[in-house]
Design goal:
Layout (H helix, E strand, L loop, with lengths): L6 H36 L16 H29 L1
Helix pairs in contact: 1-2
Amino acid sequence: MLPPDLRFPSLLVVLALTFDLLHYVWGSAAWGLFGRHKERKIHGREQTEPFDAPTWMNYPTNLFFWGKIVLIVYAYVLIGAFVAETVM
């Protein structure tokens, strides 16, 4: 049985792991699809002109990256407080 004081930090850890998974899934899917789109667009021609990726494409990746860091730090603080209170 999990102590009540550790339930919320446990939820934060699970959310952080979810954000970690979404960070990789979104980043891989977005850049994979974007790259495939660019490959089909040039269709056998050599790409000589530079192109920019849409700026919105990285927003979810950054959200998931920083979100998981915030969640895990918050969970560590709560777990550390629980351990300090229990030991002392």
